[in-house]
Amino acid sequence: MTEYTDLLWNINDGGNETAIYGFSAKDTVVHRKVIIREAVNIDWEDITQDEKHLYIGDFGNNLGDRRDLRIYILNKQDILPSSDTMPIAGTISFSYQDQTDFTPAANYTTPWDCEAFVVVGDSVILFTKDWQSNQTSLYTLPVKAGDYTAKFRKRYNISGLVTSAAWSKTKKELLILGYQNYSPFISVVSDFGLDNLSFADIRRINFPDLIGTQTEGIAYSNDGSVYVSCEKSPVFMQTLFKAEF
């Protein structure tokens, strides 16, 4: 989830339309639906942005066997008020530096799943979702169209399943969203950037009252507020939360 033009833009998971949805935090109503032409939604997992572009991560990989991991690049100027479709501006295709085995694994056992990323300067930073260890691995890619090998940078014991991330250029602050035993958490990493991936200043906020909520998206709004979205689950409907901490 990410904010642009005073709307929170979100996506649906794999198998759904190749669309981005703009809804307002004020009324949680979808005000815009824009179909991304020439794109495919194999397993869309996260959306982020920089000054000129939106980025959609089609890198969900539950079996660890995908060889078509990619990030779609969208020009913000192509989100025209009068249009309900837009083209892709480019594609970042990638594989992981340290993955050599592409044999399909049992569901939820691969370390090569990913649901979260941010763009920092000239790089994409990926955060993997490791179902077995509850850790996350960080990989980096150039933030331009092309075919790349994602460089391994760091592994961190996040103590949960990472489902989304957001980064504030102004604050140099990283938010990592996830859940542990379906209890949501947000980890706040201060002074985070390409020159500092240490996680030296990190604090965790748990939300035990929302157990059973499958939190999947996080974003800063223009006023500095933090919003979290969740998928429909047996306990909650799909919902938007304003996180206060």
Assembly category: single chain
* CATH class descriptor name: Mainly Beta
Outline, from the CA principal axes? globular
Count the E strands.
20
What gap, in angstroms, lies between the N and C termini? 19 Å
The strands making up the biggest β-sheet line up spatially as 5-6-7-9-13-12-11-10
Mean pLDDT: 95
User: What is the percent of helical residues?
Assistant: under 10%
Number of helices: 0
Beta fraction: over 45%
Largest sheet: 8 strands, mixed
User: What is the N-to-C order of secondary-structure elements (H for helix, E for strand)?
Assistant: EEEEEEEEEEEEEEEEEEEE
The CATH architecture can be named as 6 Propeller
CATH topology: Neuraminidase
Number of domains: 1
Care to describe what's here?
This protein has 245 residues and is mainly beta. The protein has one domain: 6 Propeller (Neuraminidase). The chain contains no helices and 20 strands. The protein has strands at residues 2-4, 7-11, 19-23, 30-37, 44-49, 53-58, 69-75, 85-87, 90-96, 114-120, 123-128, 136-142, 146-156, 161-168, 173-180, 183-189, 202-206, 214-220, 226-231, 239-243. The strands form four sheets. An eight-stranded mixed β-sheet has the order 5-6-7-9-13-12-11-10, with no helix packed on it. It has a five-stranded mixed β-sheet with strand order 1-2-3-4-8, with no helix packed on it. A four-stranded antiparallel β-sheet has the order 14-15-16-17, with no helix packed on it. Strand 18 and strand 19 form a beta hairpin. The two termini are 19 Å apart. The mean pLDDT is 95.
